[in-house]
## 1
Amino acid sequence: MEMVNPVTDMADCFNIEQLIRENIRMLEPYASARDEFSGSASVFLDANESPYNRYAMSGGLEDGKTGPLLNRYPDPGQRALKKDVARLKGLDESFVFLGNGSDEGIDLLFRVLCEPGRDNVVTVDPTYGMYRVCARINNVEQRSVLLRPDFSLDPSRVLEAVDENTRMVFLCSPNNPTANAMDESAVDLLLKALNCFLVIDEAYIDFSSSPGFLSRLKEEPKLIILQTLSKAWGLAGIRLGMVFAHPVLNTYLRAVKYPYNLNSLSMDVARQALKQRHSHRKRVEQILAGRARLSDRLKAFSFVEMVYPSDANFLLVKVSDPIRLYRDLMAAGIIVRDRSTVPLCDGCIRISVGTEEEHETLLQEMKRLEKTYSAGSGL
Ligand SMILES: *Cc1c(COP(=O)(O)O)cnc(C)c1O
């Protein structure tokens, strides 16, 4: 008898509906007043709002605009912003879902795809902690597979971990905290072999020399891509995350989200920001230049063993005593991230790329510490 591989043999008939939780497939979503009305009108007496726009925004917005009408509910379909995002990314709007940060997207994916107590997801570690936290919150088993010691992706390890109850594999590229982008051929291998969704978190893609996987979305229904305005766009405060996925899956994400998950102020700021592509590009280039300079200067310290190559806006730095360095920097009011207890990241701290001034403060303090370290404990 021929051996049947349940993973690869089913890949030819990838069926999105089959991977949706049954209660979600049956769900009749809440229809808000503004859902049911889609046209233009001049008198709005349907949503029990106040007719008075008391908090008209002045200042802070460009061109003397007054900002959104805050007495009105925002558009639950987020049509205007969705259109802008779709145009920016070269996608049809039906592939775009907008959420309150990528974190909302991650949580919604769990709630739409994973039956608690039965289904599982696979993460490739070390990586962003939210995938695991979200799995726990939703009572979904999370299986952890390690990157190779050089931080490259080993697709065969992922395929060994998946089974018929696996609903998602999470990849982060460029990966947090290892800073590298995943190899395209390794990702391709996964896309071919998996019979579940492959989520690729591209929060740092604008800083990467690799183009990312957005162009593959149309031909790959398994692919889900997460992006955000929190990093390269400099808008962590407005909480605007993007999920790019097949329109069928998208329909379910929309059905499960809070009707008004994005607020008027955030959408307004996002739309203004997305128009300024040139200054966005310039800021990214500034950060890339800053990253290169910071990396070079960090390498000169006697207690710095390694500065890993970075495709993101941070550096993973291996030092001889990460906990001591972390504490000493903190005492000087400089906060970096201690990643030394994370698998494969022994001895590592993570440093975000900041301004030249911030780098100068950091490097001056490190120089001072270098002297005390070599005088004191022979490090
Ligand atoms: C920072 C980060 C995000 C951003 O999440 P938001 O909720 O959009 O702010 C997403 N994924 C990774 C891997 C990150 O490091």
Note: The longest helix spans residues 277-299.
## 2
Amino acid sequence: MPSPKSSPAQQIDQQAQQLDSTDKLSALKSQFELPENGVYLDGNSLGALPIIAKQRALETVELQWGRDLIASWNKHHWIDLPITVGEKIARLIGAGVGQTICCDSISVNLFKLICAALAKQPGRTTVLSQVDNFPTDLYMVQGIESLLSQERCQLKSVNANNIEQSLTEEVAVLLVTQVNYRTGYIHDMAKLTKLAHAKGILVIWDLAHSAGVLDLKLDDCQVDFAVGCSYKYLNGGPGAPGFIYVAKRHLSHFKQPLSGWMGHSQPFQFSPTFESDKSISQCLTGTPAIISMSILDAALEVFTAVDMSDVMSKSKALTSFFMQGLKTLKLDQELTCISPQSAELRGSQVALTHPYAFAICQALIAHKVVADFRAPEVLRLGFAPLYISFENVATALHRLKKIMQNKEYLKAEFQQQGKVT
Ligand SMILES: *Cc1c(COP(=O)(O)O)cnc(C)c1O
């Protein structure tokens, strides 16, 4: 317990120590390569490098590609990677076997699933989504709209709090991102899926900011379809392939339009006619990015003995501690928190708004606290439970306090914007 005489900053340090001492996941941090004296709060954009993944990268390039060359497809099971990696992800998202496969990016996988879901809903044309969804999700629907014509696909985007009342019988597909990429708001997967099904609507969940951090139960929630990426909380590395989930009950009447040879039931028969084996493999399109996928396969080893309910509990504790710290240091008077106050409704991030959000973010980076900026004025801090300690959070709070107190964000050097924010 902090003594009554300690300063607000000292109270935060004491609480951090206390919380770290009872953290079940604290040992995992040593499995990652992390900046010295820095705090990496951007694991929601690009997860940190697991040491085991670095070793795998060398092995895949030097020993497999370099020495065994094409024999590696069989010898090192490259051909099975989409399935083996898919099953490792399945365990983390509450999916039984045979429904999850690793391939392509979220954007491409959304194309496959939106088309496949629309095809299962003759007479219905609307794809309903949140207006503040991640842009690619909306862009992909817009692309399908122009490909198929509005007679077969029409995007309807509504405010996130109007989704429930917009679930009407014209809606073919509900496309919803579970955790809002800006605010971190979590949509109720069980409830929305159930409400949608009651109106005959199929649901695609985007798990970009959920997989690897929330305790997901896709099968229990009766989810139809889902997509996710692996370079955020799954730590698969830049541009690592994403994943697709198709519920078992849909696999036998499922047809996605990017029917490439890898999705064929017997790709090495080189038949001129596409035919699938009705398994989750029909979601594959072309040759998998083996180097990336092999690195991801290794990165997922970090999760082996980890219980996702512990990960989610720590996520809530980290963001709660940060938000409490903002109040203790009176930073909440200057920075407005737009993430839900209730931990139950909050993903593993905290979003703060300020007219100088971009420059504050740059100043934090100069002080080795890596966060990111989302236009127009959001400073976003991600708390990856596998490698962020409460001491890290305390350090970030102290450095942020200093930047705000000294108005360091007014310096010219922090105003320069790069291509990637
Ligand atoms: C990060 C993110 C994406 C990224 O899509 P890619 O095709 O993998 O680049 C998509 N949707 C959401 C909600 C995201 O947060």
Note: The chain has twelve helices and 15 strands.
## 3
Amino acid sequence: MKYKSTRDTGLSLESAEVISAGISKEGGLFVPEAFPSLSGKEIEEMAALSYIQKARKIIGCYLTDFSDAELSDCIEKAYTAEKFVSSSIAPLVKLSDTAYILELWHGPTCAFKDMALQLLPHLLTVSAGKVLNGKSIVILVATSGDTGKAALEGFKDVPNTKILVFYPSEGVSAMQKLQMTTQDGENVHVAAILGNFDDAQSGVKNIFTSEEIRQTLARQNQVFSSANSINWGRLVPQIVYYFSAYCDLLREKEIKAGEKINVVVPTGNFGNILAAYYAYKMGLPVHKFICASNKNNILTDFIRTGVYDKNRPFYPTCSPSMDILISSNLERLLFDLTECDEKKIKQWFGELAKTGAYEVDEFVKQKLFELFYAGFCDDEETKATIRTTFTEENYLLDTHTAVALNVYRKYMAETGDDTKSIIASTASPYKFPASVLEAVAGNQDTDDEFILAQRLSDLSGTQIPDALIHLRSAKVRFTQVVASENMVEAVKGILK
Ligand SMILES: *Cc1c(COP(=O)(O)O)cnc(C)c1O
């Protein structure tokens, strides 16, 4: 399998090259030149395989320049019993006759980012060994909260790597902030940005494409790479759990072989839902992709009208990992929907950079409307969904998954579609204890998140994940705060 860029289809690179580089030089994103396909029979047969075996089969279709031994080694190191609390890695919980919650947060940082970021460092190390001639890698991360911690945990003390994480100073939950500022490891660095996630993401993109920093780094025998979902090595592991969920439904006889399902995803940077779309390209039977947003509903507007317009207010919400106005991975979807038309991609994303807006053509709109449904909800609705799901179904949702369930219910009410639906559950409720407890038990007399988490545990009879309890006594190591326009200088300082 070879890879090209969404803005340069003339490229033909191996997966080791695209994983090492993260983003293409001209600013485009790497995509496979074709999608491998699995037959219905192959999907049925996969139901008998473990998660690790499924991962080997699916990821193996893409990373064809990895030997079987290299790939197996990477995957076995990632999805261990020590790191994932659930033995099935990504368990599926039946919520109602039509809705199944795919719990993707049983990894070490309690968010779905672990599904990819436990594997990426291993993929990157092998890739670097193939193509980087002994250079060491500097991983730059812009995070809306969960990627930062998951990347730090994945890359800490990985030989020949350094990792720098930037998070929006006021844009993450107290628990998320503590997770990052207390991170251990010799090769890690964390800084807060005065700005929102988009500022952090643009800053990181600027650093990536700055020739000056690139050369400074080269002199130190270092290169940049990315652990954000613009990196192909982040996306490909996410395809696996959609097949895993489908196989679980088959095994439990909830669906028949070949039966179509819906996939509902609480969306920010469009990585998770894109992985579902890629699973569909490979043969997963999907009826609709339901894209759920919070009050930052730019994707809802886009999917409903074909107009992407980021000239709008930015709202901090109780689902902070989705507080995003520039969804990077949408570029990959549009590239596919235009049937790989790099001219159109360059035109639209050029307009986005210049004016903050673009409109796709009729052909793409038609395809979007056919395959996708989009909706959003505000914080009040999010909390109401957490409350009713807890009282009526005895299931505790985090704020992001609640957005997804809320939008799913709106979809059901609007369309009457009773297709079995998988709802991607992206975080443990204990990562957002203040909002979740407020939703189920009203205002509290403290904002100490550990006390709130304990109350939530007492009330729901569920356990606080060990990884979060440990934070209580962990020492804060990182206190640096950087103005977003000073990120370049900050990075130079840190790398000296
Ligand atoms: C990152 C994240 C999302 C958004 O996922 P994308 O792949 O960026 O669309 C949703 N929920 C949680 C909890 C997250 O951490």
Note: The chain has a mean pLDDT of 95.
